[in-house]
Structures are given as structure tokens and as C-alpha cells.
Amino acid sequence: DVIHFNWGLWDLCYRNPESKTQGHRDKVNGKLTHTPEQYRENLEKIVSILEKTNAKLIWASTTPVPDDEAGRKVGDDAVYNRVATEVMKKHNIPINDLHTLMVPKMKTLTTAPGNVHFTPEGYQLLAKQVASEIEKRLND
Description:
Elements: E1 2-5, E2 14-15, E3 31-32, H1 36-51, E4 56-60, H2 76-90, E5 95-96, H3 98-102, H4 120-138
């Protein structure tokens, strides 16, 4: 068995209950969902649970935060990915670097400016890399 997993984009999201933006996103007046330290603690808990399955684990790095995203700050993705990398290295979990894959594609393969979601072509690119990494682990 292989488990390919990620948490991140909602952890680094700022929310304000009064915001009318989908998900109450508001990086100006909102509150951060989880600090990097809380994120680390949560990842440690998640990894400890997943390790008990005896499945082969693969961490997928968080994809980039685009300019003008309503509830996320550019650069926070790098901070949270550094935290995740430290946790995964500690547990000897390989990393599928989806962040690096998508950085050069953010202007062309997102559904709209400031959106973290991808076009069908963007998701095909991600899926190809994810499938490749899973196949490698299955053959280990």
C-alpha cells in the first residue's frame, strides 16, 4: 500500500467570519488557521497515525500561493513547505515536490488570477507526477 498525502493550503489561510469571500478568506483582517508551529505539531500527529498503517508514505509539497490570493500570503507556502520538509526528513518520508513543478506554471495553469486551483491541464500535470511517484514507491 502507498499513501500519498498533503496538508497545507488551508493551514496557511487567513479567515475572517465577516468576509464575503468564499471560505471567509481575508489575509488583511483574518486570523491564520494554523501557525507554522501548530502545522508542525499536526503533521507529526498525522505522520504517526499514517506510519502505523505500514503503508509506504509519500509527502506532496504544498503548491504555490499565487499573487492576489484573497486569504493567503505569497511566501507562506515556502515557510510551511520548509516545516513539512523537516518533519518528513525526520521520518524518512520521500517528498513529491509539487511546489517546484507548479511554480513556473502558475500564470498559465490556474483557473483564474489569484486562484490556487488549476485548469484541467494543470491537474493532468500534477496527476502525471503523482502517479509516477506512487509507481516508484510501489516498485520499491
